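Field reference: sequence -> structure
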Amino acid sequence: MCVLYFWLQSMLTILYPSLMPTIQKMPGGILPICLDDEECPIFIVKAPKEYILAAKINASFKIYLVPVIIDNQQTFGLVTAFFDDEDEPLIIKTPLFADDFSLALFESLKNGRINVHFFDELSRERLVYRAQATIPVDTQKKIDEVTLLGFSFPNARTIINEIERWFGLRTSFDDARAISVSLSESVYDEDFIILDVRPEPHTYHGSRGFSHTILEREEPGSYQEEDIAQCLLLVFPPEQIYINPKRVYDKEEMCDILVITDTKLLIIQAKDSPNIEQISRQKLSRKRSNVLNALEKAINQIKGAVGYYRRIESRLEFLINGKQYSINTKELEVKALVVVKELFNDQYGEYSSLLLDFFRDKAVSCIALDYPELYQFCSRLQNEDAFFEAYNTVMTHAVKYGEYPRLRLGLVEE
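Structure field:
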């Protein structure tokens, strides 16, 4: 009972529900908040589960103040790094401008003591830590003297591009000048389960009527499928989403998720791996190999799903929880989507070869997204037309140039 009370008194979700709409609108990133009745500034990190686990394992993360030159003027961006790998950690890129956000951010970090609240992409509060931010002298001097540019979308895009390039070339000297955030004390139990019993997010076909999630996942499959369904609900009505459909003749799974609209049949196959310390600390070469293996397995499963669909193209029949569905799909355009844990920019040639081989073999469009990208797709493209327009842009580029692009969503005028 004492632990539960402490937890409730520490979670923003419970203590400051008025902040939740702001957090829910964040596509991801960092957000400083200063409240009059809080002793320390609040520092929100909204990021995938892998980033949060890396922070937990290391009890720390780092923030790099990165110089950028735009039109002969120096400005800055931030890279927030979570070290699952020493050389190529997981990162959040943040452009800085002359605005209240940057002012609050620097004031929070200069305070030294902060409370760090970790949220995942679906705005579920995962962990809370009392933390200490330590700013090296040289970096503090830059902060004190910093002059930032006014906001513009072109400037934001330039800063994002430049800080990513800079970070890839950083030195041990740059590492030493990074701001260190030490997670000194966990405010509540780190191993709790989040149970969601709201009816609205659980009306898609195959839903149990509730969902639960944990940060560290030994068996990731069902958690990932439910998370993907929650992402898809940002775009599609629940009656168009079918989770874990099974073939009628042998009751084996056809694919992980189907989305069936008035014009499209989207076959989704997902591959994840355990979110545990052992996997987080794997060498980068092993992680890269795992992605290719996962992608290949997912494509083979989608081949099976397409083959099953084509047995009787005018009607798709499948089972979910023992209930049989029979849907007229004769006029629907078939597309496929693979969702994996992560994709690496320098491996897109290898990914593209596998995906385009499938496209040529089955004459079905197929793209691959990692889970964070899927969330970005769904959170920024909140209707069917926009979602498939972006999908088609990726596919058209791949067919024309022989390699899939990595779309950057956001940072454009709407």
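Note: The chain has two domains: 2-186, 218-401.
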